[in-house]
């Protein structure tokens, strides 16, 4: 069959570079063309209906056809389609959004909320901003040498230069000359993979806490500015930390005046069954970044929220220098703000967090039930995020060689059954829209069970 060079399929191959894609493979595979959305599903160009088990990229929290968000965007586009927030400019929607977000987000001490919000367009920009604010803050308080940041291996914080440096996934660094100097990575709190033989989970946590403190002392506490973490690592494999990991880690950080940044880009707005992953895991951050479900992904918008203490240092520094010289043309976009406000209203009115608490256990129980499958080493997750870790040997926990791309093959089989999931590294990842029904969860799980059996046949046949 010859390819129509004018078709969207051919023109995508000819002109479009796909992020996080093998570019050579794309020239033969071509794109999966998605045409439209309906509830938790999308429909491809051939009319196939697929449940979006990843909510796009962990973000389309209200599914793909929420008319209220379309209307909110339309109203704002008609009234005022753009205004910047540089040099004292503001608009009603962004003021209201800053008010609501700061009131909702946990601050550094119990009962305290965040003080101020600074807006950008993506999670990466929110984290880049947080990194700059760590430096700005420490200049302001007279400790400019406190400039190193500690992140975790397998953490994901984005792909701009700073955010990719914070990210602890080697393929995000390789041949991009990253990470930047001054970013340190500590062990990922994944007991299944990182725990040592005979080590209990409590001993594992002790070891990670000791490792962190040793690193701080070795580098010099006066050189460490901040620690950044996702409450649950998403892209790195939906890694749910041991229960007291964050409170223990924070104790160490506070001891050495190291700021805590919670990257809530995935966890924020209900994913873990609380509004914030920080609530679920006892994190009391000095800064909090959020994006994705902030606007249900209907408009690119992100925020870096800061505590009163961080804000006061920023205020003093901007006064000293004459200006707070940071910001993005589209940061605080009024249309994004209007969409985010409507999203937050829907979360409240439909009790979306309560829904996650009600249906999340169905997903988690279904995943745990699949742990008996010969290919599954570990089933894990919380709320409406989860992962199945694939192994070639359940006893030794040996992974498949990456070149075999077993998780990718499995995701392909599941997609043939009408469900989109993501295979990454050794895991199959789950992050459906927060509105998913129990019946849809069952459909997802059935497709996964059948896909696992097909993949087992394929693995054994090779
Ligand atoms: C936890 C986390 N932080 C930051 C980012 C980066 O967000 P963006 O892709 O909007 O730059 C992501 C994206 O997946 C993420 O999962």
Strand content: 5-15%
> Level of helix content?
40-55%
Q: Class by helix and strand content? A: alpha/beta
Low-confidence stretches: none
CATH superfamily of the largest domain: Type I PLP-dependent aspartate aminotransferase-like (Major domain)
| Global Rg | 22 Å
**CATH T-level topology of the largest domain:** Aspartate Aminotransferase, domain 2
Largest sheet: 7 strands, mixed
Strands, count: 15
Task: Report the top-level CATH class of the largest domain.
Answer: Alpha Beta
CATH architectural name of the largest domain: 3-Layer(aba) Sandwich
Average pLDDT figure: 97
How many DSSP H or I helices? 16
List the helices and strands and how they pair.
Blueprint: H1 8-15, H2 23-29, E1 34-38, E2 41-44, E3 49-52, H3 55-58, H4 67-79, H5 92-104, E4 116-120, H6 123-140, E5 148-152, H7 161-166, E6 183-186, H8 191-194, H9 201-219, E7 224-229, H10 245-255, E8 259-263, H11 277-281, E9 287-290, E10 302-306, H12 308-321, H13 334-349, H14 352-369, E11 376-382, E12 385-390, H15 406-416, E13 419-420, E14 422-424, E15 427-430, H16 438-461
Parallel strand pairs: 3-13, 5-6, 5-7, 7-8, 8-9
Antiparallel strand pairs: 1-2, 2-3, 4-10, 9-10, 11-12, 12-15, 14-15
Bound molecules: pyridoxal-5'-phosphate.
Molecular structure report:
- It is a single chain.
- With 462 residues, the chain is an alpha/beta fold.
- The protein has 2 domains: 32-65 and 353-461, Aspartate Aminotransferase, domain 1 (Alpha-Beta Complex); 72-349, Aspartate Aminotransferase, domain 2, CATH 3.40.640.
- Helix content is 41%, strand content 15%.
- It has helices at residues 8-15, 23-29, 55-58, 67-79, 92-104, 123-140, 161-166, 191-194, 201-219, 245-255, 277-281, 308-321, 334-349, 352-369, 406-416, 438-461; strands at 34-38, 41-44, 49-52, 116-120, 148-152, 183-186, 224-229, 259-263, 287-290, 302-306, 376-382, 385-390, 419-420, 422-424, 427-430.
- The strands form 3 sheets. Strands 4-10-9-8-7-5-6 form a 7-stranded mixed sheet, with helices on both faces.
- A hairpin with a 2-residue loop joins strand 1 and strand 2 (41-44).
- It is globular, with a radius of gyration of 22 Å.
- The structure holds pyridoxal-5'-phosphate.
- Pyridoxal-5'-phosphate binds next to helix 3 and helix 6.
């Amino acid at each position: 069959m010859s390819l129509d060079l004018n078709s969207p399929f051919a023109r995508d191959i000819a002109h479009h570079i796909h992020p996080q894609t093998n570019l050579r493979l794309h020239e033969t595979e071509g794109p999966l063309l998605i045409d439209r959305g309906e509830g938790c599903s999308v429909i491809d160009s051939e009319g196939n209906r697929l449940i979006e088990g990843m909510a796009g990229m962990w973000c389309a929290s209200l599914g793909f056809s929420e008319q209220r968000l379309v209307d909110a965007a339309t109203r704002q586009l008609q009234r005022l389609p753009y205004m910047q927030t540089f040099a004292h400019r503001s608009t009603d929607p962004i003021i209201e959004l800053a008010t609501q977000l700061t009131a909702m987000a946990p601050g550094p001490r119990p009962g305290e909320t965040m003080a101020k919000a600074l807006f950008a367009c993506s999670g990466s920009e929110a984290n880049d901003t947080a990194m700059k604010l760590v430096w700005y803050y420490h200049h302001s308080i007279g400790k400019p040498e406190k400039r190193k940041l500690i992140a975790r291996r397998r953490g994901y914080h984005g792909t701009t230069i700073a955010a990719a440096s914070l990210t602890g996934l080697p393929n995000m660094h390789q041949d991009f000359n990253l990470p930047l100097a001054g970013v340190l990575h500590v062990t990922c709190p994944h007991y299944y993979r990182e725990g040592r033989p005979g080590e209990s989970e409590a001993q594992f946590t002790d070891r990670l806490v000791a490792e962190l403190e040793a690193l701080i002392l070795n580098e010099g506490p006066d050189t460490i500015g901040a620690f950044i973490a996702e409450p649950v690592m998403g892209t790195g494999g939906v890694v749910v930390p041991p229960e007291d990991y964050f409170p223990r880690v924070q104790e160490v950080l506070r001891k050495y005046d190291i700021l805590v940044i919670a990257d809530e880009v995935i966890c924020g707005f209900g994913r873990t069954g609380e509004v914030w992953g920080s609530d679920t895991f006892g994190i009391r951050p000095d800064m909090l970044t959020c994006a994705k479900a902030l606007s249900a992904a209907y408009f690119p918008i992100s925020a870096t929220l800061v505590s009163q203490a961080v804000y006061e240092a920023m205020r003093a520094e901007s006064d000293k220098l004459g200006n707070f010289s940071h910001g993005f043309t589209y940061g605080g976009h009024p249309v994004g703000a209007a969409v985010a406000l409507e999203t937050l209203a829907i979360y409240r009115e439909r009790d979306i967090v309560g829904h996650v608490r009600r249906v999340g256990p169905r997903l988690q129980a279904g995943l745990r039930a699949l742990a008996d499958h010969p290919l599954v080493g570990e089933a894990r997750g919380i709320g409406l995020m989860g992962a199945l870790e694939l192994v070639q040997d359940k006893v030794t926990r040996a992974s498949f060689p990456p070149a075999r791309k077993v998780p990718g093959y499995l995701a392909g089989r599941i997609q043939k059954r009408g469900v989109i999931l993501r295979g990454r590294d050794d895991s199959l990842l789950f992050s459906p829209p927060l509105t998913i029904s129990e019946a849809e969860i069952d459909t997802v799980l059935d497709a996964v069970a059948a896909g696992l059996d097909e993949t087992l046949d394929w693995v054994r046949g090779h």
